[in-house]
Specification:
- The protein has 218 residues and is α+β, with helices and mostly antiparallel strands.
- The protein has a single domain, classed as Glutaredoxin (3-Layer(aba) Sandwich).
- The chain has eight helices and four strands.
- The chain has helices at 12-26, 55-63, 67-83, 99-130, 138-147, 152-159, 165-178, 200-216, and strands at residues 2-7, 35-40, 185-188, 192-195.
- A four-stranded mixed beta sheet has the order 2-1-3-4, sandwiched between helices.
- Helix 1 (12-26) packs across helix 8 (200-216) and helix 4 (99-130) packs across helix 5 (138-147).
- The radius of gyration is 17 Å and the shape is globular.
- The relative contact order is 0.20.
- The mean pLDDT is 96.
Amino acid sequence: MQVEVWSDVVCPWCYLGKRRLETALAGFEHADEVEVVFRSFELDPTAPQHGHELSTGVLARKYGRSEGEIRQMQQQLVDLAAAEGLAFRLAETVHTRTVDAHRLLHLALATGGAALQRELAEALHAAYFLDAEDVGDHAVLLRVATSVGLDGGRVRAVLASAEYADAVAADVDRARAYGATGVPFFVLGRRFAVSGAQPAEVLGQALQRAWSDARNHG
């Protein structure tokens, strides 16, 4: 059974959702027969290629809130992440474009399958949220991608071109077709959708339902 996860590498809820899905899978008896594939979603396609401005100020303008209010919201997320074993550095993250990171996730899927893509997704999330690195920076992307086993030559070639840009756009179009307005957005067995970083228990129930449905409908 396939579980598709629409997410963005700079979305804190997506990293939380990834962890919660992993927790749900750890308690799912058929986990070894589940393939998790990450699909692209850009929260802000207009973001600058190289992030120089901290995300806090950008979010404050976007939502019409003070930076103090945004920092309070970020702290709540930091606390939630800590409960999942993640040490978020949200106050240090920069506003940056993610299309190139998504293109590399497609490269990973094409060359190493879902397992390699999962490793890269984890490494990209960690680089942004745990290390506060600019995941729009090609030097960062090259280092992160090669650290999980991707070929440096292929990574450079993809970053220097528009390769996989059409695949990223197709993922975004599919998300819209499903009615997804935000991420993370999970589609299980191509039949059941779960929106948001739901608790592991909820995702576990969704896994069981999708699995049973697949068995009943062949």
